[in-house]
Design brief:
2 strands, single chain, 58 residues, alpha+beta, 3 helices
């Protein structure tokens, strides 16, 4: 579960909770699938590619 989230742009550090959290508001069905620990295919997953803008400038 965390290996895919670690590379997502929506997975950010929250200073209030002092841990990483997903910034996407999942609906009840998606959240239950996510918490079950099974194969969850998130529709909001976006690769956190820091160099995407640099490649466009080249």
């Amino acid at each position: 579960m965390s290996s895919r989230c670690d590379s997502c742009i929506n997975y950010e550090y929250d200073d209030d909770y002092e841990c990483y959290v997903c910034m996407v508001d999942l609906d009840e069905d998606d959240m239950s699938r996510f918490l079950s620990g099974g194969d969850f295919d998130c529709a909001f997953y976006q690769l956190d590619d820091e160099y995407a803008i640099v490649r466009k400038q080249m």
